[in-house]
């Protein structure tokens, strides 16, 4: 039986010089630092792609990356090597902080903008949207979701998720903001169109120069900096702090810290920082 892409039954294991090359390439493109011992991760993420291209070793595949005529392949490789674990209402204390501290602070302000800076497949951004919609009436808010993975951004835009992903969504919000699928989508749910209309997604590489995104009251950057070295963290925090309005908040994961980073951000609670200037 013929296939469009030949699948080789065996790909030669990743060699040390090949791993060093892809580690340098990924760091230069994304800021992600692949430590020694991640060879199995690279092979697990890329093995199928090599076989689809009919290649038997990683050196031949890596030779394609970065070349102008293989921009799509470069994007695919970065997508595959980027971790995209996320779920609805992850680290729920952050959303309680929004409701109890942030929203009252801006109660009399028209318009609020929140940036989910590493939004993956959209669960974080839509969790913020549900939390905002539950507190503010009208359309005076907007959410921007960005991610380096074009594949994840497209998934976020579709806003279609398996019912299993609804496990941590409060029942009242699930009923109010999620539409159960029918027929072939019976085991899925779709985010409410009103929330989708106020939540926008785009592909963005945080380690590159940022376009003019405007300013934000809150920026979420969770479970990203664990992959960055201190210099990359410093450059990124400088850019994010500049995108925060005075009095705005940066929210990172509870497993992360800004220790060793110089910035105008002040720690006010574990994993939560405020720009006072």
Span of the ends, CA to CA: 66 Å
Secondary-structure class: alpha/beta
Number of helices: 10
Helical fraction: 25-40%
Quickly name the level 1 CATH class of the largest domain.
Answer: Alpha Beta
Count up the domains: 2
> How many β-strand runs?
10
Uncertain ranges = 1-5
CATH architecture of the largest domain: 3-Layer(aba) Sandwich
CATH superfamily of the largest domain: Vaccinia Virus protein VP39
Question: What fraction of the residues are assigned to beta strands by DSSP?
Answer: 15-25%
Instruction: Please state how the strands of the largest beta sheet are arranged side by side.
Output: 6-2-1-7-8-10-9
What do the pLDDT scores average to?
91
CATH topology of the largest domain: Rossmann fold
Shape: globular
Instruction: Tell me the major beta sheet.
Output: 7 strands, mixed
Radius of gyration: 20 Å
Order of helices and strands: HHHHHEHEHEHEEHEEHEEE
């Amino acid at each position: 039986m013929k296939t469009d892409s030949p699948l080789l039954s065996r790909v030669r294991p990743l060699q040390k010089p090949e791993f060093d090359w892809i580690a340098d390439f990924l760091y230069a493109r994304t800021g992600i630092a692949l430590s020694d011992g991640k060879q199995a991760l690279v092979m697990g993420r890329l093995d199928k792609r090599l076989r689809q291209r009919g290649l038997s070793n990683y050196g031949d595949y890596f030779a394609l990356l970065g070349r102008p005529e293989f921009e799509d392949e470069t994007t695919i490789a970065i997508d595959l090597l980027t971790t995209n674990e996320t779920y609805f209402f992850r680290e729920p204390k952050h959303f309680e902080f929004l409701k109890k501290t942030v929203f009252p602070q801006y109660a009399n302000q028209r318009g609020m903008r929140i940036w989910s800076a590493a939004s993956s497949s959209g669960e974080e951004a839509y969790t913020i949207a549900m939390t905002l919609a539950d507190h503010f009436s009208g359309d005076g808010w907007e959410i921007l979701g960005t991610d380096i993975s074009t594949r994840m951004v497209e998934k976020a835009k579709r806003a279609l998720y398996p019912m299993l992903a609804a496990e941590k969504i409060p029942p009242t919000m699930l009923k109010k903001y999620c539409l159960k699928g029918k027929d072939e989508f019976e085991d899925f749910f779709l985010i409410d169109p009103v929330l989708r209309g106020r939540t926008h997604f785009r592909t963005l590489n945080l380690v590159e120069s940022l376009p003019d995104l405007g300013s934000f009251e809150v920026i979420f950057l969770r479970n990203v900096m664990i992959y960055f070295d201190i210099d990359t963290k410093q450059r990124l925090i400088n850019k994010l702090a500049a995108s925060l309005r005075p009095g705005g908040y940066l929210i990172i994961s509870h497993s992360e810290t800004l220790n060793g980073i110089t910035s105008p951000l002040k720690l006010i609670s574990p994993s939560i920082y405020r720009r006072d200037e």
